[in-house]
Amino acid sequence: MDFVIENIRLRELVAVVNENKAFFEDFINFLNDHGFNSVPEFINTEDDSKAQSTILAYLIHKSDAKLYDGLGNPYANGKARWYFLSWFLRDAPAQRLGPLVMHMPGNSPNERKARLLNELRKYVKPLFPETASWEWPALSEVLIARLEGSRRALKGTLFEAVVRRCLASVFDKHQIELRIGDKQIRVEDETYDVPVYGLEETLLIPVKTRETMGGGHALLFTRDIHKSVSVAEGAGFHCLPVVIAESWSGKLEDLACEHFVYIQANPNQITKIEPILLKELENLVDVFKTVS
Q: Span 151-291: which CATH code?
């Protein structure tokens, strides 16, 4: 498969972010309805009580505006508003703020979130004094960065589904009695995306994807694959890593397992990758039969 020069990931992210502009505009309208003439006025207000009550009202507010994740799927209303305000205030709702919410005063989760977000509002106010920092072009850059992480995680889940689908097709075609697990499993500190169960044996399939070419993360990517295989085999499981990477110099032949699938392709090309993956798995029918 040919190398992809175009940054497909960026193009897709920009398209999603552009769809999210309507959500930002809905937020501005909400502020206007609650006594703020502009976003900077809301950020810079000295009326702490008004700001916090406005945030709380926004968290429980319902409208037709949608906030989309990195793959273009709409978030649920409450999650959308919590995520949006957190990103808007240049923070991370799940990784950093989530654990802090439970320690905030309030009689409900939304009250605690509102208290935390208002504290963040006061903190970032002097850090971003320019009006332009609170306009759409600046926020769109923030959303691109935040949604990239969302997209990466969702793409991983998407590839798990592709692997399961291809395995099911191969097993059905060749009448192989194996059960494909519908959830990841954990062995020691390693997570395996697709477990396949036979009567007495279990095959663990870690799905590893990499979009970029080179850099320090390439070494970490290689180490991650080797560790995943070593832990599985050391625990008495069979392991079949599926690696999808456009340009990667790792040596799969050195892995502690007999078989692997390596597809040299940009992981963004899902429709092109799936038939190749199906063919690669077809070549491993004898391996699957030994597990069953």
A: 3.40.1350
